[in-house]
Amino acid sequence: MSSSLADVLATLQFERAGEMSFLGRQLPAPANHILGGHISAQALLAASLTAPDRTPHSVHTYFLRPGDSRLPVIFDVVALQEGRTFSARRVTARQGDEVLLEAMSSFTAATPSAEAVDYQPTVPEVPQPESLPRVAPHFAEAEDTTPGQWASLRWFERRTVDADTEPPARSRIWWRPDGAVPDEPVLTAALVAYLSAVTLTEPAYAVRGGVSVSAQRDHSVWFHAAADLTDWLLYEQSSPSSTATLALASGTMFNRTGRLVCTVRQEMYFPPPRR
């Protein structure tokens, strides 16, 4: 199965559609579905184009409609704040009159301080990725589901450390891009957000016995340090709670050096069968 990283990176480049509007291409997918991680990464990058010289601090996304991957998406950006330390942007992603996504992004300028306080969770002690077997990037690419159909999922490599099926269904994976990525801070953050949304569905699936009909409802990422995409990153994931048709998933990601890269939360909706 060949890497789709070059295609993914190409779709993270935009055509300008207006002073604060950008046009982004999508990737082929079954049922012409737009992957949540992909369009949210695009929204973060579109917002960043209006906040030059600042890096992502956080992004909070609501997925409202599935969209059509055969068509481009327009990303309209609104500047909400321009301060000395933070810039805030709202992004609306749409196809025609249909709004697919609303995202709030915060960007920050480097502000070194002698009074800074640093602390973080301890990185888990796990086997190194080189000692683990290669696996498909995602459950949806497994041999018994839809092998080779999700171009938007084939841009990274992974190694699975462990995965539980009982709540909270903790899983730990190593991942890295399947190819070279330009050393650009905002692009790096966008790919981290992309991956964080893609695999964070898996703990909730595991509790329910496998991949099922679902939709990402919202997704949030807080960035703590730059990811090193030249090496493997460790992503610890779980699904700590579920109520009725909604399941919450949480994750923390570390560079191999042990530095905390980001904290992630995501909620998924599992609709009841239609009768």
UniProtKB/TrEMBL annotation:
Residues 31-107 form the Acyl-CoA thioesterase-like N-terminal HotDog domain. GO terms for biological process: acyl-CoA metabolic process; fatty acid catabolic process. Pfam families: 4HBT_3, Acyl_CoA_thio. Signal peptide: none annotated. Keywords: Hydrolase. Residues 170-267 form the Acyl-CoA thioesterase 2 C-terminal domain. GO terms for molecular function: fatty acyl-CoA hydrolase activity. Belongs to the C/M/P thioester hydrolase family. This is Acyl-CoA thioesterase II. It comes from Mycolicibacterium iranicum. The lineage of its organism: Bacteria, Bacillati, Actinomycetota, Actinomycetes, Mycobacteriales.
